[in-house]
Amino acid sequence: MNRGSIDLHIHTTASDGSTSPAKLVDEAISAGVKTISLTDHESIAGMDSIGGLAEAQGLTVVPGIEFLTCFEGREIHLLGYYFDTNDQDFRSRIKEIQQQRNDTSLQIVDNLERLGFKLDKEQFYNIAAEGRTIGKNHIIMALFKAGYLKTKEQAVDTLRRYLSQNGLAYVIFTGNPFAEAVELIRKANGVPVLAHPGLIHDDKMVVDLLNTARIGLEVYYYYFGTNRRQLVIHYERMASEIGLVATGGSDYHGLYTPEVRLGSTMVPPGTLDSLLREKGC
User: Fold this and answer.
1) What pLDDT is attached to residue 281?
2) Going by DSSP bridges, is the β-strand pair 74-81/191-194 parallel, antiparallel, or unpaired?
3) pLDDT, the chain, mean
4) 44 close to 77: Cβ distance less than 8 angstroms
5) Interatomic CA distance for residues 212 and 207, integer angstroms
6) How large is the average pLDDT for residues 40-63?
7) 80 lies in the same domain as 116
8) Does 159 share its domain with 191?
9) Buried-state track 227-244, b at ≥16 Cβ within 10 A, e below 16
10) Are 275 and 82 in contact (CB under 8 A)?
11) Could you report the per-residue pLDDT of 187-219, keeping only the tens digit for each?
């Protein structure tokens, strides 16, 4: 396969991306991507909607999802791949987690209001009513719309000051503990993978997470900054030494992350075979 022909970390309007699932298929074809996974937060609705469309255009879609979990008081992201898409218990639990996640996001919006930010809450209720997950990108876009933000720099500062861990408006989501999320994916015959370990900024915690259960590691990731390559090499070595399946993707969010291009992260062609072998374990 050509460089960038696999992208296993993509978000659409089913969660906190700006591109619809159908449009994403067109973008993937145009970018020369051959295999994708829509890893929307607490949602597989986007994946459900593009099955026939993707197949008709020769695009392979790997079942995927991304969960927000908690571990020792920290926000941890967990990816899931190749789960049984017909598992009704899995689907039902996703809906429950999504509702709990949206409740937490609305608490954050309430906190922002108490801090002086007046936002139209109806837009967030509409996102939830449409069966989508309310994410930080939605809150940032609402702040732009309300005139509180004008530049990307202001948005980054707001994320850090108000919406990041220990931020002034932050509320930790405790509805999906890490170990339970891993077990949920495993019960659906899927492969759980720790997402973007470099963003945890704590390798001891990364090792602790990897020791909780048999999971994979997202190695090939579009990290911002000058040390991107060093991080990839570091986690590639870690996965190899421990014997973990190594995955990767761009974490594409469309217009919300304009620097990131679909399929821009080099994912080795053997990744899919490794995932399928892990699924069979």
Assistant:
1) 66
2) antiparallel
3) 94
4) no
5) 9
6) 94
7) no
8) no
9) eeeebbeebbebbeeeeb
10) yes
11) 999 999 999 999 999 999 999 999 999 999 999
